[in-house]
Amino acid sequence: MPLNESELKTLLEVAEKATPGPYFTAPDAAHDAPDHENSGLAMIDTGRADDWPIARLCEWNAARFIAAFDPTTCAKLVRRLIATNAEVERLREQLKETQKAAEKWYHERY
Predict the structure, then answer these.
(1) In Å, what is the CA distance from 67 to each residue of 34, 96, 106?
(2) What span, in angstroms and rounded, lies between the C-alpha atoms of 60 and 44?
(3) Contact at 8 Å (CB) between 58 and 66?
C-alpha cells in the first residue's frame, strides 16, 4: 500500500532532522570494541572530520543501503513523491473537467 500524505510528511521531518548526507561506507576495524575487532563489518560515516560515525558494526549490504538512502537523498525522494502526488491530483481534476465538457458537448449535439 502506498504511503499516505501524513506518512510522507513524517519521513520528511525525520530526514530533515538527521545528519545530512552524503554517507559513505568503510571497513570498521572496531579497535575500541575488542569483541568485534577486525570482524569484517562496515561503518557508515559522513566523511566530515567533525562528525561521529553514523553507524558502526553493520553488515555490508545494510551499510550500503543506509549510505545510499542517506537523509538528504530521502528528503529529495519524499519531496518528489509529494510533488508527483499533487500533480497526479491536479491532472485527475483536469480530466474530470474535460470529461464533463465532452459529455456536455455530446449531449448538446445529439
Answers:
(1) 25, 43, 56
(2) 10
(3) yes
- Which run of H or E residues covers position 1? none
Nearest 5°: the CA angle 19, 21, 25 is 105
Model confidence pTM above 0.70? yes
Cell digits for 6?
501524513
CA distance 106 to 80: 38
- Across-strand partners of 42? 27, 58
> Tens of pLDDT along the chain (110 residues)?
889 999 999 999 999 999 999 999 988 776 666 666 667 788 898 888 888 888 888 889 999 999 999 999 999 999 999 999 999 999 999 999 999 999 999 999 88
Query: Measuring CA to CA, which residue among 78, 79, 42 is closest to residue 62?
Result: 42
